[in-house]
Design brief:
single chain; mainly alpha; 85 residues
Length: 85
């Protein structure tokens, strides 16, 4: 039996589709920004996109600063030449 266009799977409810908005993020995507879906617990901690961006920028800055501190110093060519001899 073929399903008609009005038939939906049992796990879908029409009430769920009332919340959707077509093209909701079109303007942001057209500008070149990226849309990310956050977990509900994360969304509660960061209520706006500005808050998320500030937190991620701080994490990126911290990562760059700590990468310089933990980087292993490189040996000079003279020292490695003596060790191999």
């Amino acid at each position: 039996m073929k399903k008609t266009e009005t038939d939906m799977r049992t796990e879908y409810k029409r009430a769920d589709f009332a919340k959707l908005e077509r093209g909701k993020f079109f303007a942001e995507v057209a500008k070149g920004s990226t849309v990310a879906i956050l977990n509900p617990t994360i969304a509660k901690a960061f209520p706006s996109s500005e808050a998320v961006n500030a937190a991620l920028q701080g994490l990126l800055t911290l990562t760059e600063q700590t990468a310089r501190l933990t980087a292993r110093p490189k040996r000079s060519p003279q020292k490695t030449a003596r060790l191999s001899a």
